[in-house]
């Protein structure tokens, strides 16, 4: 990973910033779709260094943020069962459900384990044949192939005490939903490089054409992001709206064929609820009928569990780029990383958390936080 | 406890959660809002890692710490080294010369004698290197499944020489902030072996007794204002605690932070921030700017301070907050960690 240093080089960053400043003549609103990019922009202070006319709007691409409250509540109900070992990536543990979170379920005796790969959950299932092992399968196109592989392997190995709680969502339908909104202010997108490394880029040119919006596939290091912004600004200033790939070291047009094949086998497209946004048609995956036996929602009979979100939380508007985090009246007051109302505050990748963690100093003067 | 009213920061969890032991905001709130009120009039002293008490005109530093690390041995050390070095360092951070330690072992039924012997030998060897004597101790055994092999508690006493006054409240604007070497090493070493993660190179814990380094720094005659070993919660937690104690701001330079490539890569992979990762053989020093060069030179002459560097300064602005200048020239707030750092999903 040594070569990643090159993508944080301050001198090269300054050159790109100079080019962006030179190219910018009008105000532009650019959305970075991915929470990882949001985090990087805020953490490195990139937004402070851009021309004042460029507004970075933080998109819905945080897997933790957009997981619906209802799914969290289902996870909590399953994880509290004494017969279950509930496995999850670390950052889901703090995400609040209606009344609790996985940390609190754990402190009440729930057997909750942080894993670094869904295949670790399968190993735990093999080691504990008398327990039910559930993996919390959330995320975008990036995490879905490995989760699909886990179910495929479980079936192949005849492991029956494993199941997946699925809440996978897809980026392109979200981009379309944002552009369809009558209040949409987004004029260009930085597409998430790692999503495209799996799925390829073929879904994006039709979106560029339909909404006449430039989309630039962008990585996550500071120079990646500056290059993505530079290319986006050049398109905007020249009236172009094309797909460009500024992350060629990781993204091929056709994507990762093996991963796509695995996704096609294990999952099928479905309408999905997005936390704070609502249902976006055809925007998610669920297990295909031949793998339905591995669906934790059915296995533990939580399909009928329904819950509502906090009425004062405006994370949905944050996720759609309609307001900045500090423009929500609850920001930094009722809603902090310790007492989050919405997942945009609790996830380390969430826009609200990024603003709270890294920008409190300047926001203190603006909003009294 | 009937009269005890659960204060705001604890209201969101009726039980102890892992974050209460993370060395961040939740740990602090547990002490401040539960232990201190419960202790009532019996509580004495501040919230430093070691208490300073005067006995017969002699200032003693007294500290205690418990070690629950899993696994009991890891690249670069074991729970035995940690138990000695951790308490020696807590005592040394008030400028004291650590003299004696107690060791209390809580052993889990079924643990092999060979592994306990290995840990005990490590305790003895670490005490010898640190120049402290093990003067009292205790042993208990708990049922199988109620411990991770061995837990160790150590307490230590040291003497503070005349003229030495080192405590968090003494940080003041203009002070130079120095770190004694590479950060984040211990936390990543533990993570890599506990979770079976490999990062291309073996990262070894930096566990070490820092009393010799502190003695070298004091011997320069420099005006040392604050010393702190940034263990749980990492450099970020320690700097925040000092900033709050002294009511000053800390301005950090991200580019100046000594982060070894292996730590940076591992943290990048897991979505962790090296500023929040634990260290066990490093110290932070707040020094009068006029004395900074001489302190740095003395630190670099010591094997445990060879990579010492200036990472920031104390400022009058933003009191109680730590603000970092990013590598690209922007700024960000470096907050106290809420609880445990958690690896990110992607």
TrEMBL record, chain A:
Keywords: Iron, Metal-binding. One of its GO terms (molecular function) is 4 iron, 4 sulfur cluster binding. InterPro entries: Hyd_form_HypD, HypD_1, HypD_2_sf. GO terms for biological process: protein maturation. Pfam families: HypD. The keyword Transmembrane helix does not apply. Belongs to the HypD family. This is Hydrogenase expression/formation protein HypD. It comes from Hoyosella subflava (strain DSM 45089 / JCM 17490 / NBRC 109087 / DQS3-9A1).
């Amino acid at each position: 990973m040594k070569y990643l240093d090159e993508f944080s080089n301050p001198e090269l960053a300054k050159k790109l910033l100079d080019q962006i400043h030179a190219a910018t003549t009008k105000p532009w609103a650019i959305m970075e779709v991915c929470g990882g990019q949001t985090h990087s922009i805020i953490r490195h202070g990139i937004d402070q260094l851009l021309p004042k006319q460029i507004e970075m709007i933080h998109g819905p691409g945080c897997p933790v943020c957009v997981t619906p409250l209802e799914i969290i509540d289902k996870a909590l109900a399953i994880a509290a069962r004494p017969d279950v070992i509930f496995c999850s990536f670390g950052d889901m543990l703090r995400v609040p459900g209606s009344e609790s979170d996985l940390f609190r379920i754990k402190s009440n005796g729930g057997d909750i384990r942080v894993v670094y790969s869904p295949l670790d959950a399968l190993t735990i299932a093999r080691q504990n044949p008398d327990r039910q092992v559930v993996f919390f399968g959330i995320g975008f196109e990036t995490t879905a192939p490995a989760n699909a592989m886990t179910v495929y392997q479980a079936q192949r190995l005849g492991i029956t005490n494993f199941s997946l709680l699925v809440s996978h969502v897809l980026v392109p339908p979200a981009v379309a939903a944002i552009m369809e909104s009558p209040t949409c202010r987004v004029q260009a997108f930085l597409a998430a490089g790692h999503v495209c490394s799996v799925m390829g880029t073929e879904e994006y040119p039709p979106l560029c054409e339909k909404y006449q919006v430039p989309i630039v596939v962008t990585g996550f290091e500071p120079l990646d992001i500056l290059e993505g912004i530079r290319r986006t600004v050049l398109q905007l200033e020249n009236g172009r709206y094309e797909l460009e790939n500024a992350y060629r070291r990781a993204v091929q047009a056709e994507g990762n064929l093996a991963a796509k094949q695995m996704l096609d086998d294990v999952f099928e497209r479905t309408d999905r609820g997005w936390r704070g946004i609502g249902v976006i048609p055809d925007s998610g995956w669920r297990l295909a009928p031949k793998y339905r036996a591995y669906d934790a929602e059915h296995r533990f009979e939580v399909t009928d569990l329904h819950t509502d979100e906090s009425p004062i939380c405006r994370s949905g508007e944050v996720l759609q780029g309609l307001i900045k985090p500090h423009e929500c009246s609850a920001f930094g007051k009722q809603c902090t990383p310790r007492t989050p109302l919405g997942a945009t505050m609790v996830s380390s990748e969430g826009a609200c958390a990024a603003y709270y963690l890294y920008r409190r100093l300047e926001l203190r003067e603006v909003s009294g936080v | 406890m009937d009269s005890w009213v659960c204060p705001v920061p604890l209201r969101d969890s009726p039980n102890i959660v892992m974050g209460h032991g993370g060395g961040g905001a939740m740990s602090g709130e547990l002490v401040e809002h539960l232990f201190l009120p419960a202790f009532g009039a019996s509580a004495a002293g501040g919230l430093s890692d070691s208490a300073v008490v005067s006995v017969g005109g002699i200032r003693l530093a007294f500290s205690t710490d418990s070690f629950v690390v899993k696994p009991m041995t890891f690249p670069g050390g074991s729970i035995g080294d940690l138990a000695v070095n951790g308490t020696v360092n807590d005592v040394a951070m008030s400028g004291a010369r650590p003299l004696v330690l107690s060791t209390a072992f809580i052993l889990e039924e079924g643990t092999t004698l060979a592994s306990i012997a290995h840990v005990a030998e490590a305790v003895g060897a670490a005490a010898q290197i640190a120049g402290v004597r093990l003067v009292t101790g205790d042993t208990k055994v708990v049922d199988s499944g109620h411990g991770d092999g061995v837990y160790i508690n150590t307490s230590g006493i040291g003497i503070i020489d005349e003229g030495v006054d080192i405590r968090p409240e003494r940080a003041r604007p203009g002070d130079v902030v120095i770190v004694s070497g590479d950060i984040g090493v211990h936390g990543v070493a533990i993570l890599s072996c506990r979770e079976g993660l490999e990062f291309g190179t073996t990262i070894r814990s930096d566990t070490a007794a820092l009393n010799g380094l502190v003695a070298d720094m004091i011997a320069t005659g420099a005006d040392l204002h604050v010393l702190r070993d940034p263990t749980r919660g990492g450099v970020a937690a320690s700097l925040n605690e000092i900033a709050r104690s002294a009511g000053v701001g800390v301005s950090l330079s991200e580019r100046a932070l000594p982060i070894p490539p292996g730590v940076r890569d591992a943290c990048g992979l897991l979505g962790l921030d090296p500023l929040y990762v634990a260290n066990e053989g490093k110290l932070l020093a707040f020094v009068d700017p006029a004395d900074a060069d001489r302190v740095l030179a003395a630190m670099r002459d010591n094997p445990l301070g060879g990579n010492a560097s200036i990472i920031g300064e104390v400022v009058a602005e933003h009191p109680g907050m730590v603000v970092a200048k990013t590598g690209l020239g922007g700024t960000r707030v470096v907050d106290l960690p809420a609880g445990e750092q958690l690896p990110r999903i992607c």
